[in-house]
Design a protein that fits this description.
Layout: H1 2-27, H2 43-68
Length: 70
């Protein structure tokens, strides 16, 4: 069981890294933003929600893995 959870952690971590890198690549075009307030639309919103979902899933899987391996 612990092996499957470890594999799931690796997959989730790699996915989270990829989503975060995709987000930062999109913001590099804007420079620093300069205090401009923007709303997230389309792909930005999807990446933002995917980041939240993947980070929550990684946290839960990691917590379960720690509890089961004690």
């Amino acid at each position: 069981m612990s092996t499957y959870l470890s594999i799931a952690q690796i997959i989730l971590a790699a996915s989270l890294i990829a989503v975060i890198l995709l987000q930062t690549r999109g913001t590099s075009i804007l420079g620093g933003g300069g205090g401009i307030s923007r709303t997230r639309r389309g792909v930005e919103r999807t990446l933002f929600k995917a980041t939240i979902g993947l980070s929550a899933a990684l946290f839960v899987i990691s917590l379960i893995n720690v509890i089961l391996t004690r």
